[in-house]
Amino acid sequence: MQLQYWRHRVHAVAPESFAYRPIGHFRTPHKAIAGMPIQPIGALGVSGSIVLLPGFAQGLQDLDGFSHVIVLYHLHQVRGHSLMVTPFLDTQAHGIFATRSPSRPNPIGLSVLRLAGVSGCCVHVENVDVLDNTPVLDIKPYVPDFDRWDADRIGWFAGKSGQAVQHRSDTRFADAPLAEEDLPVA
């Protein structure tokens, strides 16, 4: 049950579910989860594309004026989620919301990718760290004045985030156990 905070009172609210439809799919050289980059910094120079469904092509107008895009996508190969995970860059368990682990309650991925061009229904991108055929939920322009912040602390990533350049994925999150709230009721 979710809690809604309003005027210093806590109200119980029934959980909602949302349905999103993909606007397109990634085409990338990453055919398997094992061995693929875990962040775009580890995929420098890797090219791919986002092929939009034809009905969304008009929405690409003016996108080619940007050097980078933020892409939101559905992590379609992740099953279940865990609230405590041992992420790729550490040997200790952390709360899921303090990690970039794909084993999330809502399996939504986010990557900031270099925009190489737009042609028809196709968005050409670089530094791709996404599995081939991944459903794309949204594309937004990256605007440094809006999207870049100087971080004064990065939690447990301190001293480890630079390892993302060479670290590769394994299958630890492909078959994550179902969380208790996802189990069928007997």
TrEMBL record:
Gene3D superfamilies attached to this UniProt entry: YaeB-like
Tell me where in this chain the TsaA-like domain is found: 20-151
Lineage top rank: taxon: Bacteria
InterPro entries per UniProt:
TrmO-like_N, YaeB-like, YaeB-like_sf, YaeB_N_sf
Q: Coiled coil located at which positions?
A: none
Question: Which key words are in the record?
Answer: S-adenosyl-L-methionine
Q: Which Pfam families match?
A: TrmO_N
Hey, which family's this protein in? Belongs to the tRNA methyltransferase O family.
- The name of this protein is TsaA-like domain-containing protein
Supply the source organism for this entry: Megalodesulfovibrio gigas (strain ATCC 19364 / DSM 1382 / NCIMB 9332 / VKM B-1759)
